[in-house]
């Protein structure tokens, strides 16, 4: 009996896990992998006993693995051979004989292509070829005719043969695209639609099927992702009407995605508008600032620049929504989604810096037109406006309707001078952290504009008088019309006119950011101090 040297034993132990990993990756079956591992270990043992000098043991083990795997395939050919894909599947084989010299790579590709199949085709393939079930048993399990199962198997063979022969890989599988997703309107109870797009997969599915409807299999191949994952995401998106199923099992995105072309058209338009409107808008507010201060609202003693950062956006926003009557906004308001929200999706593709510099005119200017939200936080008694912008740090500040009610309590404390109870102290501490209030020398102070109901009415009278003199509402009416034209130009034909018009009305508020940018670049609106950014462009009021 011949004994192996200790070094041989050590080598077999060292490579055993690696060999089993190789076997499992090839067979995708635990028991088959163990059988293949045993064959490889035996072949390696024989090669070591032969006394052959091996300079590179890693390479030698890989050679033994591949050689033994090739022999294993030949021995198990009735199970593994990939024969005549053109035949109707009367035999339990998947034969692609033309590729026998590339068997390792071919089986990897075959497993990948099976993963891309739709659910029904994937289930039938696995049941027939891997679980070894008969056509009749599969038909019984799926409650379909045996002839239908055979037809599906024929379709599977045809698809696999075509896919493996083509061996294509779409760009999205190698370079997934990022998409920024928000909403206009009221979100669903679980923050829909934002919550649907926490992964790259959902975004890239919607991008892949935006301009052209695709089947699950086509999406899977384009994204390089198994169909099972695609199907799961599609179910969620379809449930909220964000994706629609077209004829012949094809899916298409059901909301507008902003591309570089549409972004360039829209930002270019508002840059030109700001060049003609920014200075008149500024004069309407700045020339009347002292009169506005005399209204006596809380926060009126803030510095001039800080007040302008709050009042200019508010003035544009308020004037903009006075142009159309209530019936206009009701006509184009979003319908309720199946998830409970009333919103449209605001989605835009995020490009790399090089693409923006190359394809977006005046990039350094128009990049400031982006926003993380124009937020209204209203209740029966109070209203508010807070705008997330380039100048506030493009963050998402935690600001909700209860904050406005809490600020109203702060105003009561300032006006009455009453002592602060423990609850009041908690409110003061929390609102101070948001930058809304401060305590100086024991005195409570409001740091953002807060208008009482009568004071708000007086503010509107001052602003309306000034803006009426320059015919501002007529200019805004033209912006409504122009943004609708831009939106229709870039929206796919299947998007409803109602959604296009609502999106256009929201996009018209880009004027706010274009005006702020123009005034800041011209030196009329000084940049905010760093400590002011936390409360910048925030204004609150009490309703009558």
From TrEMBL:
Record keywords, A-Z: DNA-binding, Sigma factor, Transcription, Transcription regulation
A Pfam family it matches: Sigma70_r2
InterPro entries noted in UniProt: RNA_pol_sigma-70-like, RNA_pol_sigma-70_dom, RNA_pol_sigma70_r2, RNA_pol_sigma_r2, RNA_pol_sigma_r3/r4-like, WH-like_DNA-bd_sf, WH_DNA-bd_sf
Domain RNA polymerase sigma-70 region: start-end pairs: 11-78
SUPFAM superfamilies: Sigma2 domain of RNA polymerase sigma factors, Sigma3 and sigma4 domains of RNA polymerase sigma factors, Winged helix' DNA-binding domain
Source domain of life: Bacteria
Record-stated family: Belongs to the sigma-70 factor family. ECF subfamily.
Name listed for the protein in its UniProt record: Sigma-70 family RNA polymerase sigma factor
Organism of derivation: Cohnella yongneupensis
Organism taxonomic ancestry: Bacteria, Bacillati, Bacillota, Bacilli, Bacillales
